[in-house]
Design brief:
heterodimer, A: 376 residues, ABC transporter involved in vitamin B12 uptake, BtuC, two-stranded antiparallel ribbon, 70% helix, 4% strand, B: mainly alpha
């Protein structure tokens, strides 16, 4: 009988640190091929339709940017949380509240037009997302409540609240009873970047800017250091005078504001009105993006594009092969699994060993043991 | 009188999946592992149970399939977190995300199909006894399993040596390891037990509660089960009480919607989720008490060294 054994590396391996997302992606492809084969589809055909055809024309690249923008925006915020060991998994709800706050202007004051409308909407979107994220932060710092569960529960509440708004008080009276708000006026729509080439809007630029800013914050500023210290050793952080409760608020408000910005950008740019459902689970997929990007804002840009492609590919195989577009979710889930598994290689060497050791092996082990201890 | 009995019966039906999933997770967390994948394992159990019942025509085979599906799916989590020492929070989350996607894909052809329902217990003469007859002797089989399971877990954790060992692992895996206890093996078995329970809970949804397949039909129950464990301070009988309180909230809001109370239905629907938040706040307010109750190694990866 064989078993796995993890041997701690003296230092993290820079090689696997860089390689692991790629190994994970390769493993996902292999698992995906098996899945397609089981579904009775030639894997090569499926992969061509899934990964290549959706990005073979310029307008399709614009669609990719539309999907990637919210993922990147949310994920860079989440990466700060996760680095600080703070688990905000309610970005989906913060996304929705950002969308609701920002949409207040075009829905409630449709006659208000001009260049001020958009900036105000975006600002309100960030305020809405941050305010909604402040709830789990407050509960955690004030009442010691687990932020994972509260932030997740608030997602359901946000979805129901949006549903009520667009069916009730904010419904378009001329909408033939459809559950949606009025179409936003021209000055409330996020402009497209290159209207002649495709639909991509300024949301993608926001995402890139946010990623670069957060990268600077995390790698070049004291605040980023504080995040990392509190994340890896809260005790050490306390001795350095960093306050955990303040960090909880900082991380939640930042990630909430970015998720809110993603929400209002999506509604104002890609959709043009509020509907009962405004997100295909961006807030959850962004968790995968954050990890696939190794919690590094620049890596997250690449990861966001990859995950955006899984959405487009899912739609493509659904229309071309009649496979459920849930296949996208399966790909995303598998990818995260493999990423987490491969990350083990950064900190550990993996050895397959038989249960019974030979004498020499045992002796070698005894020899190595104190060295390992010293190294640690 | 009949109305009261009926309401009590529906509360029990709503509470049963929460209870089973939470009892399973309680054992997992007592062994020091935090599996946030309950929602994913539950939905896999639901789709597996429905599918097997629908294809074979036997809800009993569906029941077994639900359990097997949950256990198998949890194995994925076990390999990752226990053998590869991955971050438990992130791995649990990915288990949920994968489960929601995979179940949606597997269940595409089941949507709108009539499912098999597990028959309620019926003992001639006894079940007809007014009031208590139906409550005690006329419910679905999983209800009885859930009560037996709670009692069994209570007995196991607090009255057996193996249970004591399990709890000691949850409180300090390093000391347990030093005593020669096979930490990883215990944790594997705990996680798989938790998965089987979550699968069974999902099977209850698709074989009893609403015998059909609807995407995302767990509707956050897995997360509520996780909250219940915290609410119960990791004690089985409190999980039982909590599950029934939440079952009552769930049923209460449905009845309120049916009665046409002049409150938006969405607000009523969000009550179980809001109640979860409120309850969590109340229970974790006392920091010292929470720290005392929480298994001390909860969520920390363990790599045995020789």
């Amino acid at each position: 009988m064989m078993r796995l054994e993890l041997v701690k590396r003296p230092q993290r391996s820079p090689l696997f640190s860089a390689l692991s997302p790629f190994i994970a992606f390769a493993l996902t492809i292999i698992a995906g091929a098996i899945m397609f084969a089981l579904l009775g589809v030639n894997p090569l055909t499926a992969f061509r339709i899934y990964f290549i055809e959706p990005i073979s024309q310029v307008w399709q690249l614009h669609e990719l940017a539309i999907k990637a923008a919210p993922l990147i925006l949310i994920a860079v915020g989440l990466s700060v949380c996760y680095k600080a060991n703070i688990w905000n998994i309610g970005a989906e709800g913060q996304f929705i509240f950002g969308a609701i706050f920002g949409s207040g202007i075009p829905v409630l004051f449709p006659q208000f037009e001009g260049p001020l409308v958009l900036p105000l909407m975006l600002l309100l979107g960030m305020v809405g997302g941050a305010a909604y994220a402040a709830i789990p932060a407050l509960l955690k710092t004030r009442f010691n409540t687990n932020e994972i569960l509260t932030s997740l529960m608030l997602v359901y509440v946000a979805q129901l609240f949006l549903d009520w708004l667009v069916r009730g008080p904010w419904r378009d009276p001329q909408g033939h009873g459809f559950p949606q708000t009025i179409q936003f006026g021209d000055s409330a729509v996020l402009p497209e970047l290159m209207p002649d080439a495709g639909r991509a809007n300024w949301g993608f630029v926001f995402a890139l800017v946010a990623a670069v800013l957060i990268w600077i914050l995390m790698s070049r500023m004291l605040k980023g250091f504080e995040v990392r210290v509190l994340g890896s050793s809260p005790r050490a952080g306390r001795f350095a005078g960093f306050r955990l409760s303040r960090m909880v608020f900082f991380a939640f408000l930042l990630s909430g504001a970015l998720a809110g910005l993603a929400g209002i950008s999506e509604v104002s740019g890609a959709i043009g009105q509020l509907q009962p459902v405004i997100s295909p689970g961006y807030g959850f997929t962004a968790i995968i993006v954050a990890f696939l990007g190794r919690l590094n804002p620049l890596g997250i840009i690449a990861a966001g594009l990859v995950l955006a492609l899984t959405y487009l590919g899912g739609e493509a195989v659904q229309s071309a092969l009649g496979i459920s577009d849930k296949v996208a979710r399966v790909f995303q889930g598998m990818l995260l699994f493999f990423v987490l598994g491969c990350d083990t290689l950064i900190h550990y060497r993996i050895r397959l060993i038989g249960l019974a050791l030979t004498k020499q092996e045992a002796a070698a082990k005894l020899d190595a043991a104190p060295k390992l201890k010293e190294a640690r | 009188m009949d109305i009261t009995v009926n309401i009590l019966l529906t509360i029990a039906t709503a509470a049963t999946p929460l209870l089973i999933a939470a009892i399973g997770e309680l054992v997992v967390e007592r062994s020091g592992v935090l599996n946030l994948g309950v929602e994913g394992m539950m939905i896999m159990g639901a789709v597996g149970g429905f599918g097997a019942g629908y294809l074979t025509g036997s809800p009993w085979i569906g029941l077994l399939a639900a359990i097997a599906m949950g256990a198998l799916f949890s194995l994925l989590f076990a390999v990752m977190t226990l053998s590869l020492a991955t971050n438990q929070v992130a791995t649990g989350l990915s288990l949920t995300l994968l489960g929601l996607g995979l179940s949606g894909m597997m269940g595409t052809s089941f949507v709108g199909q009539p499912g098999e329902r597990l028959p309620n217990l019926y003992i001639p003469g006894v079940t007809e006894i007014p009031v208590v007859g139906k409550l005690l002797f006329g419910q679905d089989p999983i209800f009885y399993i859930s009560i037996a399971l709670t009692a069994a877990v209570m007995w196991f954790l607090f009255k057996t040596r193996t249970g004591l060992t399990l709890r000691s692992i949850g409180d300090s895996h390093a000391s347990a390891h030093a005593l020669g206890i096979h930490v990883i093996r215990y944790r594997y078995l705990s996680v798989i037990f938790g998965g089987a329970c979550a699968g069974l809970a999902g099977g209850h949804l698709s074989l009893v509660y609403t015998p059909q397949w609807v995407e995302n039909m767990t509707a956050g129950r897995g997360w509520i089960a996780l909250a219940l464990v915290v609410f119960a301070s990791w004690r089985p009988w409190r999980v039982l009480a909590g599950a029934y309180i939440f079952g009552a909230v769930w049923i209460g809001q449905l009845h309120a919607q049916a009665f046409g109370i002049p409150v938006p239905s969405q607000m009523l629907s969000s009550l179980p989720y809001l109640a979860t938040v409120v309850v969590l706040v109340l229970i974790s307010r006392n920091k010292r008490l929470t720290m005392m109750n929480t298994p001390a190694s909860l969520g920390q990866p363990f790599v045995p060294d020789r």
